[in-house]
Design a protein that fits this description.
The structure is a single chain. With 282 residues, the chain is an alpha/beta fold. It has a single domain, classed as Type I PLP-dependent aspartate aminotransferase-like (Major domain) (Aspartate Aminotransferase, domain 2, 3-Layer(aba) Sandwich), CATH 3.40.640. It is built from 10 helices and 7 strands. It has a 7-stranded mixed beta sheet with strand order 1-7-6-5-4-2-3, with helices on both faces. Helix 2 runs parallel beside helix 9 and helix 3 crosses helix 8. The longest helix has 25 residues. The two termini are 19 Å apart. Bound molecules: pyridoxal-5'-phosphate. Pyridoxal-5'-phosphate binds next to helix 3.
Length: 282
């Protein structure tokens, strides 16, 4: 039986990350942290984006939350009104729709055809946008379909977004490191750097660093949006756990060997699974 439920890597968090958390706890880090994230982690996130060839962010354009989920919720809560529509590309991570509905927004599902690899096309996007569209939600690569986009495909979507300045793009890139066959993840913003005023990148430590239980996610986008999200978060949970933030800082700043190791282990399982499924069909 293969469990296709929770997206939970089955490794332990790398020892050097745990060690950093331990040291932070002993140093007396457990005080209320700033709502939008401790300075060291904010800088580590900014550096990570620089390494990735994404436009530069300043500290006021970054927020740290209790997992990527909270960052997504913060953004919706800060921006959705009763008439607001959020475009979801089916198949999609189920919680997106529920979050929009809980907050009184209208999830609009775009059926992305399997014969195009479940990809959103610029024609489908153009047809779905209305004066009420608040967000287009992209998940790159996608859970559950694994669909990824190259720079050209993202730039075609960017052309549509550019024509509709009332539309914001939330690009959930939490699976960016889990790409196979030497495919390189392309961020929506690196394909469309001039759209930084309309884009929120969402990411987190859960998947790439096997830190699901540490609950650290982050968002980077326009400063006024981040300010609104910080206000929301300050009423709900305050800043994310300071010890976990120290651990996340080490994860992003230290050499990325463990990420490569996990990725190759995932790739081996995918190859194994495809052999098993071919065998069972023979
Ligand atoms: C597409 C996607 N986005 C966001 C999340 C939430 O991640 P986090 O653990 O950082 O809240 C998940 C978790 O499974 C996910 O699959």
């Amino acid at each position: 039986m293969i469990n296709l439920g929770l997206g939970e890597p089955d490794f332990d968090t790398p020892a050097h990350i745990v060690e950093t958390a331990y040291k932070a706890a002993k140093l007396g880090e457990p005080r209320y942290p700033p709502t939008d994230g401790i300075a060291a982690l904010t800088l580590a996130i900014i550096d990570k984006f620089k390494r990735d060839d994404t436009p530069n962010f300043s500290p006021s354009e970054v927020i740290v939350g209790n997992g990527a989920k909270q960052v997504i919720f913060d953004a919706f809560m800060a921006t959705l009104e009763n008439t607001s529509e959020v475009l979801l590309c089916a198949p999609y991570f189920g919680q997106y729709k529920d979050m929009v509905s809980i907050l009184g927004g209208r999830p609009i599902v775009i059926d992305c055809p399997p014969d195009n690899g479940f990809r959103l096309t610029h024609e489908l996007l153009e047809a779905a946008i209305t004066p009420h569209t608040r967000w287009l939600l992209l998940n790159l690569p996608s859970n559950p379909s694994g669909t990824s986009y190259d720079a050209q495909q993202l730039s075609e979507l960017g052309d549509v977004v550019r024509r509709h300045p009332h539309v914001l793009v939330m690009s959930d890139e939490i699976y960016e490191d889990i790409t196979f066959d030497n495919k390189k993840h392309v961020s929506f913003l690196s394909a469309n750097p001039d759209l930084s005023g309309q884009v929120l990148i969402v990411n987190g430590l859960s998947k790439a660093y096997t830190m699901t239980g540490w609950r650290i996610g982050y968002g980077a986008g326009p400063a006024p949006l981040i300010k609104g999200m910080t206000k929301v978060q300050s009423q709900i949970s305050s800043g994310a756990c300071s010890v976990a933030q120290a651990a996340a800082t080490a994860a992003l700043n230290d050499p990325q060997n463990s990420v490569a190791l996990f990725k190759s282990a995932f790739e081996e399982s995918v190859i194994w699974l495809s052999k098993v499924s071919k065998g069972s069909m023979a």
